[in-house]
Amino acid sequence: MSGQNPEIDAEAAVLPRDLVDDARGRAPRRPRRHKHRPVWEEEPSGIGQMTKAVILSVVVLAVLFPLWTVVVTSFSTTQESIQAGGLVVVPGDLTLNAYKQILSGGVVTRAALVSVGVTGVGTVISVVVSVLAAYGLSRPGSFGHRPLLFVFLITMFFGAGMIPTYLLVSSLDLIDTYWALILPGAVSAFNVLILRNFFMGIDNAILDAARVDGAGEWRILGRIVLPMSKAVVAVVALFYGVGYWNAFFNAMLYINDNTKWPLQLVLRSYVLQGVTLPGSGTGQVDVGSGAVTGMPVKMAVMILAIIPILLVYPFVQRHFTKGVIFGAVKG
Amino acid sequence: MTVPAIAVLVVFAYVPMLGNVIAWQDYSPYRGFLNSPFVGWANFERVFTNPAFLHAVENTLTITLFQLVFYFPVPIFLALLLNSVLSPRVRTAIQAIVYLPHFFSWVLVVTIFQQIFGGAGLINQTLHTHGADHTVSFMTNPDTFLVLITSQAIWKDAGWGIIIFLAALTTVSPELYEASVVDGANRWRRMWHVTLPALRPVIVLLLILRLGDALTVGFEQLILQRDAVGSDVSEVIDTYVYYQGVIYGDWSFAAAAGLVKGVVSLALVLGANKLAHVFGEAGVYRRA
């Protein structure tokens, strides 16, 4: 805008002298500037840059350092951990024994399998049901469109409460079943709306063309809509998956039988609350036999709970930077 | 196609809503919903005159307010800082690291804090090897509990907040900055007159969402630490409802307390949204 007015040569007034070609047409003598710095931005002060670097380093370290000690401790021998007084910061004697111990078929192995099962089955159910609902809701003007949309919206603003939900689950005889960990939270209105928003962005002309060619709604959803929406469906699957994997309170409410506990609840009892892990020797000091006990085992359980998150993380990265989520959230 | 989802919601969201009828009953699991006698507003009267419930409300509001002041601005500040980092590679790397804990469970986050700050954690471990003779109990001290849970919240979720604010910052047109430079605005004036106004809709949106959650403060986070620190500072409305209902079996009373919370939360969201409209912001939803 400013450049259009010939009377005000704003650019020349603002740009540093050495950026403007001099009279003899020589290339300007450029100062060393960061290649991404906009031309109008002033050079930062040294102190400012230092402060920024220090703050950001502290922030990054605050996240990474605890994870580092947990990882190192989980790979350490018991002696190493006892010598360090608990957590190991500098890697010394490394071993896989802690992992061998928790994965050799005890409480932790079973809990991990329960978590994997609940997360897998739950995510599939949630995604299928949500995609169907979102597609159904994505065609304004279809039968009962607005009232049905309201059925979803209301659940976002008003929850029934813990007590009636608990009484319902218990009267359906779902206590101590894995279904209690899946069904009550199987449909998240928020995720349905993310999907719906995306589906609504698909050009109706494409779908109409398919209809003219005789495709039914199921075929349109499976052959046209879904292939166009892979990214957003994947993100929603991720939301559901992480939710199922991380949930612990529903298991605390609904699962009394501790052989059916998911990993998060085992993590809480044996690592956070320090209850002795049956058959693993956690809590006992056993230096002589060379078996890994205590801290390394506890830390290995934590790593086990983190691994699935790390596995999906590169994927999160890719899609979040694409802005799939934010487009949907801002809606 | 919407049928399966509606079915799930009807059974697990709407039936329990009706189940709140027990708040007006003297419910016992043996008699069931149908045969428990109605007692009018007696349970609600008990709720509002119960000192323990009022104390839980007080704790809830204290935590919400404290986090609003000390947690809410953190991601905004860090996003502005990160936004000024010029190298896209460094920026992306820092982003990727700081929002990782958002995907951790609360059990994991609390456990990590315990390993670092707990009585047998890394800090005390280091203090002991350097000759300290007493243990500093960050995890069990009721006086510093607010600081503890706020730090945990920041550690877990500030990175996520950063992402949201950074996304909003990318929408600011560079022309605005150029124009303001032409008008002689320095770094700080540009932040005040260009950057922050651009963030305002997002800030308002997040504040509204937060207000709706004002009575829900970190339930999982708190119930995990209630035993360690004591119920005096960690009892919030949700943990109170859980203990009164599921643990002590006072179902009707607990349902009444939960219902009060649900209704007040709903009123808060709707009210805040209305307020946002009054101030000309989009808010969470628009009137159709």
From TrEMBL, chain A:
Taxonomic superkingdom: Bacteria
SUPFAM superfamilies to which the protein is assigned, alphabetical: MetI-like
Ranges for domain ABC transmembrane type-1: 112-316
Annotated localization: Cell membrane
A cellular component term, taken from the record's GO annotations: plasma membrane
InterPro entries membership: MetI-like, MetI-like_sf
Biological processes per GO annotation: transmembrane transport
Topology of this chain in the membrane: Multi-pass membrane protein
Principal place of residence: membrane
Transmembrane segments annotated in the record for this chain: 53-71, 112-137, 149-172, 178-199, 220-242, 299-316
Keyword Transport: yes
Protein family membership: Belongs to the binding-protein-dependent transport system permease family.
The name this protein goes by in its record: ABC transporter permease
Species name: Cellulomonas gelida
